[in-house]
Specification:
This protein is of the alpha/beta class and 233 residues long. It has one domain: 3-Layer(aba) Sandwich (Rossmann fold), CATH 3.40.50.300. It has ten helices and five strands, in the order H-E-H-E-H-H-E-H-H-E-H-H-E-H-H. It has a five-stranded parallel β-sheet, with helices on both faces. Helix 2 crosses helix 9, helix 3 packs antiparallel against helix 4 and helix 5 packs across helix 8. The longest helix is centred in the middle third of the chain and has 25 residues. The two termini are 17 Å apart. 35% of the residues are buried. The structure holds thymidine-5'-phosphate. The site of thymidine-5'-phosphate has 10 residues, from helix 5.
Length: 233
């Protein structure tokens, strides 16, 4: 059936509307503990979105801006950083990222795929470092206001599975080497976030073979954005 919504003329019109600056882009984040396979997931997700002709910005946290990348180096280094300083450095990087990259891209109708965002602070600084939630919530309010992701894909795997993969990659950074207890708390806090925001956060079992995990991610993306993809796909 060639309904008006799927005719070539309407398709063209809807594509034009989508690239209109008045039409906000979509914001997708990818989250998970250490060694859960975010890098290959990010590549496949980005390719899937771009294959639909969508103008996509791929970025990461901490990082994504010159200031954020400098802060990232400091955060991952092996010196002593107390949890409160860590939290503030991450949010300094985040607010710059939101104002310099994410906000302008979405306002211009572009899509944004970010390797980590605010859920990571609840998981790592809240769960892992045992900081109370309230200061995180206050910084979130200050830094991102209502700029919540449209979809968050949370890759979840047992900590031992992730650590095995990370150990093969070379020297561990400050987070990867923070210990099993820390990483277990990070995982638990991520899963708690998923229970709190079931409509936004989708948990994907990353303990399975990579091709199955990646297939699941693509299916979830296609389902969630069926309307957007349908018009220009
Ligand atoms: P990556 O492993 O995704 O490259 O991220 C670098 C580290 O930064 C990772 O170990 C988790 C940490 N991190 C936090 O602790 N809190 C945050 O809010 C973010 C975005 C990252």
């Amino acid at each position: 059936m060639n309904s008006p919504a799927h005719s070539p003329i309407t398709n063209g019109l809807l594509c034009a509307i989508r690239s209109n600056p008045m039409n906000k882009g979509r914001f997708i984040t990818l989250e998970g503990g250490e060694g859960v396979g975010k890098t290959s997931a990010l590549t496949v997700l980005a390719q899937t979105i771009r294959d639909r002709g969508i103008d996509l910005v791929v970025t990461r946290e901490p990082g994504g801006t010159p200031l954020g990348e400098r802060l990232r180096e400091l955060l991952l280094g092996s010196w002593n950083v107390c949890p409160e300083a860590e939290l503030m450095m991450i949010f300094a990087a985040r607010v710059q990222h939101v104002q310099e990259v994410i906000g302008p891209a979405l306002d211009a109708g572009r899509w944004v795929l970010s390797d980590r965002f605010v859920d990571a602070s609840y998981a790592y600084q809240g769960g892992g470092r045992l900081l109370p939630k309230e200061p995180i919530r206050m910084l979130e309010e200050l830094a991102i206001r209502d700029m919540q992701p449209d979809l968050t894909l949370l890759l979840d795997a047992p900590v031992e599975v992730g650590l095995q993969r990370v150990n093969h990659r070379g020297p561990l950074d400050r987070f990867e080497s923070a210990g099993l207890g820390f990483l277990e708390r990070v995982r638990a806090a991520y899963l708690q976030r998923a229970r709190e925001f079931p409509d936004r956060i989708c948990v994907v079992d990353a303990g399975r073979p990579p091709e199955i995990v990646l297939g699941d991610l693509v299916t979830t993306l296609n389902d969630r954005f069926a309307n957007d993809f349908g018009y220009c796909g």
